[in-house]
Structure formats: structure tokens, C-alpha cells
């Protein structure tokens, strides 16, 4: 098999993996226009890649504050470092419905987000990737644990007040 055919096949299965991985992957340029929108994002947003390509994130999702997001992304572009957003800081960036409503009580998908620089051949960062992780089960579990701890603490206080 020729080397170029092997490279093409490797590229094909990598693209297939990008589309089917259970993590949202979005690539944004410096103006925050969408360049890549994978299957996870399509499935949870209901928007096709062809519908979102070259549109700004803020046009597609007006709930995202442009100045806040730009401030988060600035070090990724300028310093070539990663930036993180956790569900504890902000429950979600994308207001996707919880797709496990029977097993969970949460209305929306809790998300952890990682912004990573994509360094081009000239050494500049013209695009960043955004990886969106569904952490709804983790968030729901932590919230339940905290509620149990509060209830136990209140019960202990009531018990101590009785004596």
C-alpha cells in the first residue's frame, strides 16, 4: 500500500474519531467564528456543522457574554496556554438539556470546558480548540452529597439543642 494511501486512511479514521468521541469539540478563530463543530455538539445543540460554520459563537449562543469569553480566551491566543472553566465556576457554557432526565434531576448539562491553543506552522495561534465535557453525573453526585451533609449537620444541631 502506498504511503499517501495510508496517510489518507489514517486521516479518515482520525476524522471519524473526532466526530464520534463523547466530548464536544469546537474550533474557533480569533474572531470566535466556528471552524469545526463535531458530532457531540451537533447532537446536543441540534445545529449542523454547515449551520454554524463561520458564524460567531455569540451569534449562535447569545447567552455567552462576549467580553467574559474573550477574556478567558486571550491567554490561550497570546500566551499559548490552556484555560479552564469548571462547572463549579459556571454550571454550563452551552445551555444543553440534560439528556438523561430519567436518571438525573438536573435540567441542563453541567460542563467542564478546556480551551487549548492550536499553533500553526508559523508558530502563531490563529485558532483555539474548545473541548466540552459532560460532567452532569459528577455535579449531581456532589450536589446530593452536599445536601446530605447539610441535612446531617442540621439534624445534629437539633439533637444537641434537645440536651
From TrEMBL:
Residues 12-78 form the PAS domain. Transmembrane segments: none annotated. SUPFAM superfamilies: PYP-like sensor domain (PAS domain). InterPro entries: PAS (IPR000014), PAS-like_dom_sf (IPR035965), PAS_4 (IPR013656). Pfam families: PAS_4. Gene3D superfamilies: PAS domain. This is PAS domain-containing protein. It comes from Salinimonas iocasae.
Amino acid at each position: 500500500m502506498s504511503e499517501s494511501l495510508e496517510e489518507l486512511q489514517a486521516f479518515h479514521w482520525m476524522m471519524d474519531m473526532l466526530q464520534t468521541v463523547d466530548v464536544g469539540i469546537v474550533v474557533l478563530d480569533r474572531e470566535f467564528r466556528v471552524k469545526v463543530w463535531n458530532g457531540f455538539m451537533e447532537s446536543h445543540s441540534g445545529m449542523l456543522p454547515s449551520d454554524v460554520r463561520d458564524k460567531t459563537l455569540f451569534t449562535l449562543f447569545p447567552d455567552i457574554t462576549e467580553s467574559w469569553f474573550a477574556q478567558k480566551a486571550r491567554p490561550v491566543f497570546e500566551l499559548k496556554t490552556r484555560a479552564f472553566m469548571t462547572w463549579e465556576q459556571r454550571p454550563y457554557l452551552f445551555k444543553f438539556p440534560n439528556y438523561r432526565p430519567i436518571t438525573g434531576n438536573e435540567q441542563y448539562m453541567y460542563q467542564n470546558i478546556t480551551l487549548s491553543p492550536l499553533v500553526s506552522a508559523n508558530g502563531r495561534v490563529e485558532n483555539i480548540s474548545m473541548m466540552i465535557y459532560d460532567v452532569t453525573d459528577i455535579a449531581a453526585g456532589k450536589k446530593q452529597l452536599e445536601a446530605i451533609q447539610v441535612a446531617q449537620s442540621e439534624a445534629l444541631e437539633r439533637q444537641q439543642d434537645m440536651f
